[in-house]
Amino acid sequence: MEPRMDLMANALGAKIAKRIYNVALAIQQSSLPQAVQDLVMLRASQINGCGFCIDYHTKDATAAGESALRLHLVAAWRESTVFTEAERAALALTEEGTRIADARHGVSDETWAQVREHYDDDQIVALVSVIAMINANNRLNVIVRNPGGSYEPGMFAGMAN
């Protein structure tokens, strides 16, 4: 599969990518556990069929010490025993927040209550933001057909500022 275009080779695309990366850094520096961030980004990317983001977030999570078992089971988290209740709440929010158009009322009050049980306000801001940002990234990459397989952990580290 060939990409339709290289967003990073376009001046405007690179400028937007840099801004997105800086938002990601702010979220990464929040008190929301990195493992939760990684699981959320992977799950949304699976739902959206973004090969580039699945590649990216699987490799980053692995580099951060996440187990292969947990990464393999993210797609079936409801039928798995390897996730904490807090992670399960975040994954439920991710699914409902990613599939907004499929749900009559968006995110359910039940899921929101579960999230409130496990996370403080700053962590919820980070969680909602990481869900929104990964969905935006998924859409950018899917639209231009950016394929998975070539990501190397840390390859975007120089984009900050």
Automatic annotation (TrEMBL):
Keywords assigned: Oxidoreductase, Peroxidase
Chain ranges of the Carboxymuconolactone decarboxylase-like domain: 24-96
One Pfam short name: CMD
Molecular function terms, GO-annotated: peroxiredoxin activity
Family annotation (InterPro entries): AhpD-like, AhpD_core, CMD-like
NCBIfam families, per the entry: ahpD_dom (TIGR00778)
PANTHER family, alphabetized: 4-CARBOXYMUCONOLACTONE DECARBOXYLASE FAMILY PROTEIN (AFU_ORTHOLOGUE AFUA_6G11590) (PTHR34846), BLL7811 PROTEIN (PTHR34846:SF7)
Name of the protein this chain belongs to: Alkylhydroperoxidase AhpD family core domain-containing protein
Organism: Nonomuraea solani
